[in-house]
What does this fold into?
Amino acid sequence: ARFKRINSFLAKINIPILCFGVGTNFINPEAPPLAKQLHQSQIDFIKILSDKSPGFSVRGEVTAALMSELDIPNYSLTGCPTFLLNPKNIEKPKEIKKIVFNGGVVAALGGGGVVKALNEKGVEVYFSCQDEREMVELAESLRIPTSFGGNPKIQGMNVVYLTDFDEINEFYKGIDFTIGNRIHGCVMSLNAGTPAVNCNTDLRAKEMCRLWQMPRPNTTFVNLQDSFTQWQSHDMQIAWASLKIKHDEFLEKILPG
It folds into this structure.
C-alpha cells in the first residue's frame, strides 16, 4: 500500500526526477530471480522512477543485479554519494583514547562490561544516537531507567545526539575510532578522517560496505581489539577513487548543461 501511494504521486510529476542511492533490502541475494521476491508495487516504483529520470544511482551490486533483472536501462552503480565527500586515505592512530559506538553494537560487544573495561584503561567512550528514540533504546538494552534527558552519561558512556552537519564533523575529528551498526554514522566518521568499522548485518549495509571496501567484521561476534588492529584504509581509498570517477560521470549524464 505504501508504494502504491508513492507511485500515484510519482505518476503525476511532469519534470525529471533525480534520485541517488536507490537500494533494495529484505531480499535473499542467494535466491534468484530477485524480482520474484518483490511486490508488484515495488517493481512499478522502479519502472516509474526509470521512466521519469534521466538516470539514477544504486548503492550496491545486489541492487544493480535486481535492476538488470527488471531490464532497467538507466541506472549507475556508484553507491551512496555520502561516502564520496572526502578521500579515504585515513591514517589509523597508534591507540584509542576516544571511541564512538553507534547502533546496537554495545550489546554485540558484550554490553556494559566492555565500556567499563575501556573506562578503566582511560578511554573516553561515546555513544552517538541518530535520534532521541535510540537514546531510550540504549537505556533499555543496558537495563537502566529511561527517564533521562539532554546528553546524559550512561554507564560510563557519554551519550550524544547531534543534528548539525558541521557539529557532527567536528565531533568525529576529535575521535580515534568508531564502531557500530549505523552505516551513515560510520560514514560521517570516515568523512572526518576517523577510522570506522560497520557491524550491521542487513543487506543494505553489506552491499554498501562491499562496494566501498569499508571494513566490517566477518561474523556477528564483534572483537573490538581485532577490529582496531586489522583496520586499514588502502582498499577503501582505491574504491573511493574509482567510485568518485563513476559518480562524476553519472552527474554529467543526468544534469543539464
About this structure: The mean pLDDT is 87. The longest helix spans residues 234-254. The longest strand covers residues 98-102.
